[in-house]
Amino acid sequence: MITEDALLAKLHARTACLINFADHRFILDASGALVWPRHDMVVFSDLHFEKGSFLSQFANPLPRFDTAKTITNMQNVLQEYNPKQVICLGDSLHDGNALSRMNNRDLSDINDLVRGVNAWFWVLGNHDPEMPDAILGQSSEYYEIDNILWVHEPENLTRFANATAQVIGHFHPKLSVKKARHRMTGKCFVSTENILLMPAFGQYTGGLWVEDEAIQSLLQDPYQTHLLFNNKLYSTGIKA
């Protein structure tokens, strides 16, 4: 895991921040990754590998390099934090045929990432209800670690004996705020006492405004946002 000196440098540079969530300490990284030092773990969400090649089937002019760029961004995070475990919170593949369009180099690089840690967990999402055998790692609808449920879409916690909080992908939250007369817009983390929404990590992932009813109805409790903008993090005050 990242050294104390390296973490302090990131905190000072505002490329990471610390939060308390569900009685645990987490690192939010300006890349959009979540780090759980207690379990030597890095978490990504909504990678959407091969979204570019999917859209290009419908005459969309997006270049088809999104998977390679997302993998490079993941490599940079893993090199910096050197975790033993990784969780990906669903929609890692953009669609059921993504693997058939993925080039061999990208597939090899993904599997190299998986081999580089002790354990790699793929949470299944609505875009990828199953992971192909060609991609290494373990997959499941959810993972429960300590008192936290790790899911793609929100769950009713009464179904789970020990979970008191959940970390969720799926929503791709984004935010626009004005600071010092400058407008900043980007992806964001959103946290309440028992819910943490992850930003989408994939290169071609859009977003849903935090103010959207779909997100607001889920939050209910007072919440805090952590905006990703120009490779830095900006945490807002708690909103009731």
Task: Produce the secondary structure layout.
Elements (H helix, E strand, L loop, with lengths): L3 H10 L2 E6 L2 E6 L4 E3 L4 E4 L6 H6 L9 H16 L3 E5 L8 H4 L2 H12 L3 E5 L14 E3 L2 E3 L2 E4 L13 E4 L4 E7 L2 E10 L3 E3 L10 E2 L3 H7 L4 E6 L2 E4 L5
Parallel strand pairs: 4-5, 5-6, 6-7, 9-10, 10-13, 11-14
Antiparallel strand pairs: 1-2, 2-3, 3-4, 8-9, 11-12, 12-13, 12-15, 15-16
How would you sum up this structure in a few lines?
GO terms for molecular function: endonuclease activity; hydrolase activity; ligase activity. It holds the Pfam family Metallophos. It contains 6 helices and 16 strands.
Characterization of the model:
The chain is an alpha/beta fold. It has a single domain, classed as Purple Acid Phosphatase, chain A, domain 2 (4-Layer Sandwich). Strands 8, 9, 10, 11, 12, 13, 14, 15 and 16 form a nine-stranded mixed beta sheet that branches. Strands 1-2-3-4-5-6-7 form a seven-stranded mixed beta sheet. A hairpin with a 2-residue loop joins strand 11 and strand 12. Helix 3 runs parallel beside helix 5. The mean pLDDT is 89.
Overall mean pLDDT stands at 89
Total number of helices: 6
Percent range for β-strand residues? 25-35%
Distance between the termini: 35 Å
Largest sheet: 9 strands, mixed
Q: Give helix and strand order, one letter per element, not per position.
A: HEEEEHHEHHEEEEEEEEEHEE
Helix content: 10-25%
Please count the beta strands (DSSP E, at least 2 residues each): 16
- The structure class reads alpha/beta
Features:
single chain, 240 residues, alpha/beta, Purple Acid Phosphatase, chain A, domain 2, 9-stranded mixed beta sheet, 6 helices, 16 strands, endonuclease activity, Calcineurin-like_PHP, Pesterase_MJ0037-like, hydrolase activity, ligase activity
